[in-house]
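Supplementary Data S3. Sequence and structure tokens for construct A.
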Amino acid sequence: MFFFFPVLVIIPVFCPVVSVDQKHSVLVGEFVTLQTGLTDTQNYDVLRWKFGPQHSTIAEVNIKDGKVSTFDKTFTDRLRLDYRTGSLTITNTRTKDSGLYEIDIIKSSSYTIQKSYNVTISGESIKHFSVKINLFRSSLSVKERDSVMLHTDTEIQYDDSILWMFGDIVIVSWSIYKAKRHVSIYNGPDGIFRDRLKLDDQNGSLTITNITTQHAGLYKLQITTSRHTVNRKFLVNVKGESVKVSILCIFFTACG
């Protein structure tokens, strides 16, 4: 006599883990950073950013190869990727940048975490219902060929990150990771900032040395912490023998 016993076969199915949508609203010309929430990408293999209804890949971090790549010509060198966290920054935003952004955080063939971000770029004033906004204005004058410091007025903490921009061009990216500071300083268009930029390693303030008229313009600062994001603008006007700096500081602090 033969006995047949039912056998339960379990076939693993690896489905993506999908997070709740996040929403971001900024003005045209500003920059926006889409945070992944990761503090260490080394636990994953690939981070892939996608945009639009076609889910087109626009940027990718390949952890194994140590490569950071951007693909979509629509953004014309306006995308910046943080290798440490995988966060994506879109600079000089335009209305056509509005839409759905997605990231696939891939761990080999075992699982994929998906996050989505609804981004709205507006040319008009934006009402923020979940943030407190405080405005501060001040000015500073120095002589041409002297140095000028753009102050963050804060102390940088563990896992904070800083992005300095001149117009729409990133000139300094700075972060603290595993108690180590990681700084990238760029020369800017036509190398106008070569050997002129100095960053305070305690508070992230930026000093421009031997300043001239070609350094006049709008400087933007974004400080991202685990608690809030701070955005500031510094308008530097160089006239003859003096430099005038007008500062518009906007603090975005998440409400409880």
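Construct B, processed identically:
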Amino acid sequence: ESADVLVMNGLGMERFLEGSPYLKRRDLEVIIASEVVEPIPLEFGRERHEQACAEDEGLPNPHAWVSPAEAARMTRHIGARLAEIDSEYKAKYRANAEKYAATLDSLAVRLAERLKGARNRRIVTFHEAFDYLARDLNLQVVAVVEPDPGVEPSAGKMTELIARIRDSKPAAIFAEPQYSDRLARMLSEETGVPFYVLDPASSGADDPLSYVRVMINNAIVLQQALIKELNP
């Protein structure tokens, strides 16, 4: 409550803060990191989100940070805004932001290079967390196991999922380490499509390089899943 600056993801991620008296403080500077992101609309969870948020327009997917390229843009934006707010240290804010953003840009390039030989770029994700990364890498998300996080699909929805996966013939099904892999494993057994684990970096160590390590591992997993072999 005593903070001078609040950095928010935006794109509806912090909906729980709406109406908070804390956000109405006149002396609080709010930075919306995703202001520089070209939003992707939610797709598989669209019906649920329309019911819950009928007043919204666009229904954007909030998971922009899962793309290193978008994370780099967001980092530079945060640095620029901090430089405006606390101008005494503007050079340091900008330099630090640029240093980290350059690391993320390099990571985005490495991800793309690892998948150059991938032919089947159709995938199934556990949640709608990887749409921005999929856009960067020209991947097609053909199905989502759990559009509503924490709410398992019904038996009928599972039957529909199995049929969709069989019809679309994706290269892989991806679980997430923050959740049980039981459903992904079940779908894999029913369809013959292998499953792997991709991390949306929604949790982890409080360490500046934690995100980078997660994304490097994601790059290895994606290469294993889509190319079936590791480059030396």
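The longest helix spans residues 90-114. Strands lie at 5-8, 29-32, 122-125, 140-144, 172-175, 195-197.
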